[in-house]
Specification:
The protein is globular. Strand 14 and strand 15 form a beta hairpin. The chain contains 16 helices and 16 strands. The chain starts with 21 loop residues before the first strand and ends with a strand. By secondary structure, it is of the alpha+beta class. Helix 6 packs parallel to helix 16 and helix 12 packs parallel to helix 16.
């Protein structure tokens, strides 16, 4: 094996047996009052969070919970944006709200740079990734993505009912990210498991959750070592060779960024594709119009991203403070609900409606502030191509059983099962 001392040991070999940080009591069960006891992990939130968010925006625009050790949920666009841009008072050192807070001294770098990084480190860590996600770089991936979408539908030919989430949407970003990172495409089912462990397992006991995360990083170490033996032109080799401040990246920086690309690059996009197909399956007029006017798809796509924005990010309060009428404590969580911000009537007309020809659409589906999604061009390409191929090949479809549709819990919301009936 090629010699690179950075990766000679496992990522936890030199660390404490129990990771340093703060653990909170796990609280589950029905929400008593969304204004004082919210939880984004409860089934009613997963099924339909929008009425809850709309009601909170009117009654209690910055909700609170004692779950997860204490946290806040702003629902107005104005408040979500203010926190997203305020890196002086809110830290990104952990962006998944859970019952474990990593220690403060991992800032400004965090565990998965650049999404977990604070200034000034964030700027330089993010800059490393930009070349891989330019419009030009993304355009080179479009033909292979389109061919793969066609191959997925080829395999489903003749079926009356298709699970549009599990048999189609979920495979597309898994293949794209696997190609970018140089991972075996047949490992897709493992990627799904990693995603669900990371984003939906946050109410597991911290030790069990950490053990599941270890499985992800053990997998990444295998891939890194394979790339050391067999370098190739992909993002993994790029990160292994990349330098910051005149030195190669530390091993945890390489692995943390790879974990970010694997998790965030997959679940967010498959959720957006799945939610868009769900909407078109239940809204014949929009589906028929897009089939008849394919040139409208880029505009419609932005509206679907606004209406069904999949991502909510978390921040941690740096110090005790009074903020917009509430008393936030140091290390309180704040959930930045971009879906709630996208349905604020102060910013959007008819915010609860999907208007596929909406012309003015400054949505926050890809985030706000310095952490705005670095892969937005890639996600848009995958979403557009996935919908173009589907509508070309499957112009008529509807929900086979609306009650059989299930949605992911946690901070990335999209359909996990989506049975649709093909044809009239």
């Amino acid at each position: 094996m090629s010699v690179d001392d950075r990766f000679s040991q496992g990522f936890r070999d030199d660390g404490p047996e129990e990771p340093l940080g703060t653990r909170s009591e796990i609280v589950t069960g029905p929400v008593a009052d969304w204004a004082t006891d919210f939880s984004h992990l409860e089934p009613e939130w997963a099924a339909d969070p929008y009425p809850i968010q709309d009601e909170l925006r009117q009654r209690c625009p910055i909700a609170h919970t004692d779950r997860f050790g204490g946290g806040w949920l702003p629902t107005r666009h104005e408040d979500v944006a203010a926190i997203a841009y305020d890196t002086e008072r809110f830290s990104s050192r952990s962006i998944i709200m859970s019952n474990f807070r990593p220690p403060r001294d991992i800032a400004p770098i965090g565990g998965s740079p650049p999404i977990s990084s604070d200034p000034p480190f964030h700027h330089d860590a993010r800059k490393l990734l930009l070349p891989a996600f330019t419009k030009t770089a993304v355009a080179r991936r479009e033909p292979a993505t389109r061919a793969f979408c066609h191959s997925l539908l080829d395999a489903l030919e003749g079926q009356d009912v298709i699970d549009a989430a599990r048999d189609y949407a979920q495979h597309i970003p898994m293949r794209v990210i696997a190609d970018m990172l140089g991972f075996p495409p047949e490992d897709g089912p493992r990627f799904r498991e990693f995603v669900e462990n990371t984003l939906e397992g946050v109410n597991l006991p911290p030790e069990e959750r950490i053990a599941r995360m270890d499985q992800l990083f053990d997998y990444l170490l295998v891939q890194i070592r394979d790339h050391l033996d067999h370098p190739r032109d992909d993002l993994t080799t790029y990160l292994i060779d990349a330098e910051l401040y005149g030195q190669k990246l530390d091993s945890w920086h390489v692995a943390g960024t790879m974990a970010l690309l694997l998790i965030a690059g997959i679940d967010t996009t498959w959720s957006a594709i799945g939610a868009s197909l769900w909407h078109l399956a239940r809204t014949p007029r929009d589906r028929e119009r897009l089939v008849a006017e394919p040139g409208l798809l880029p505009t419609a796509m932005e509206e679907l991203l606004r209406a069904y924005a999949p991502v909510t990010m978390a921040r941690l309060v740096k110090e005790d403070m009074h903020w917009n009428g509430v008393d936030m404590k140091a290390d309180d969580w704040v959930l930045l609900s971009f879906p709630a911000a996208n349905r604020d009537p102060e910013l959007f007309e008819r915010p609860g409606e999907v208007v596929i020809d909406r012309q003015v659409n400054r949505h926050a589906a890809f985030g706000l502030g310095i952490h705005r999604c670095v892969g937005s061009h890639l996600a848009r390409m995958e979403l557009r191509v996935a919908l173009e191929v589907w509508l070309e090949r499957v112009p008529v479809f509807s929900l086979a059983d609306p009650d059989a549709v299930t949605w992911a819990t946690g901070q990335v919301r999209g359909p996990r099962t989506l049975p649709v009936r093909v044809g009239s």
